[in-house]
Structure formats: C-alpha cells, structure tokens
Amino acid sequence: MALSDPFGMTAQPVGFIAVRKDGRHVSELADLVRAHDVGCVVVGLPLLMSGADGERALAAREAARHLGERLPGIEVVLWDERLTTVQAERALIAGNVRRDRRKRAVDAVAAAILLQSFLDSR
Fold first, then answer.
1. pLDDT at 17
2. What angle do CA 6, 95, 99 make, to 5 degrees?
3. Phi/psi of residue 15, each to 5°?
4. Are strands 11-13 and 40-45 parallel, antiparallel or unpaired?
5. Reduced to 3 states, what is the DSSP secondary structure of residue 40?
6. Treating both helix axes as pointing N-terminal to C-terminal, what angle do 99-121 and 84-94 enclose, rounded to 10 degrees?
7. φ/ψ (deg, to 5) at 106
8. pLDDT at site 20
9. CATH class given for the domain over 2-121
C-alpha cells in the first residue's frame, strides 16, 4: 500500500495488508482509508502485457467494485500496474537493499510507484 502527501504530489509506501479469504482485508483497507481521510483509492490493475484482462485483472476489477461499495463517496480508480514490481525490484537493488529485505518491501514500493504514476498523470 501507499499514501500520498496531503497535496497529492508524492507517494510513500506504507505497508501491506494480506488478502484473506474471509474478506477482512477489505475492512482493514476501509479503516485505513477513513483514518487517513483518503479521497481517492487507486487499485492496481494487473493487465496482461498485451493490455488485455487476464484472471488477475478481472479479480482486481471485482475487488475495486466491492471496495467502492464499502466506501460510499470515495472515488475508486483502477490503474495499470504492469511492470511496477520490476521497477520496485530494480529500485531496491539500486539502493543496495538485501535480498531478504527486498522480498518484504517490494509490494509496498510497487504500490508507491503505481500511486506516483497516477498522481503524475493528474
């Protein structure tokens, strides 16, 4: 996960919420959104390299729809996340982050890259 600064200029990684079969992760995310007074939630859309929806993209679309239902009045946007994990891994390697620490940090850094891409587009 990542959050922007109050002005919507920069994105910072803020951790990780594991997806759970019982759906508790949606409640945890909704609580985080409310606690940080978030006005827009950006959900990564894992498109295939061709740009088509695969199984994971369809699941992301469904998750975004469900989240939107749980957060009335909060905009939920899907954003192309292709190659963000690769970018995150490269950035962590360039920063001399050890392999065991990279595994724990890569998702949060990828989320920050995704959010920064969204912020830059605005």
1. 86
2. 110
3. 125, -155
4. unpaired
5. strand
6. 120
7. -60, -40
8. 84
9. alpha beta
pLDDT (0 to 100) of residue 74:
94
Q: Going by C-beta distance under 8 Å and a sequence separation of 6 or more, which residues neighbour residue 100?
A: none
C-beta separation of 44 from 79 below 8 A: yes
Please give the Cα distance from 88 to 5 (Å, whole number). 20
Question: Over 5-21, what HEC string results?
Answer: CCCCCCEEECCCCCCCC
Q: From first to last of its 122 residues, what are the pLDDT tens digits of the chain?
A: 999 999 999 999 988 888 888 888 888 898 999 899 999 999 999 999 999 999 999 999 998 998 999 999 999 999 999 999 999 999 999 999 999 888 889 999 999 999 999 999 99
Who contacts 55 (Cβ-Cβ below 8 Å, separation ≥6)?
none
Name the residue type at position 2: A
Distance CA 81, CA 44 (A): 5
Gyration radius of the chain over CA positions: 14
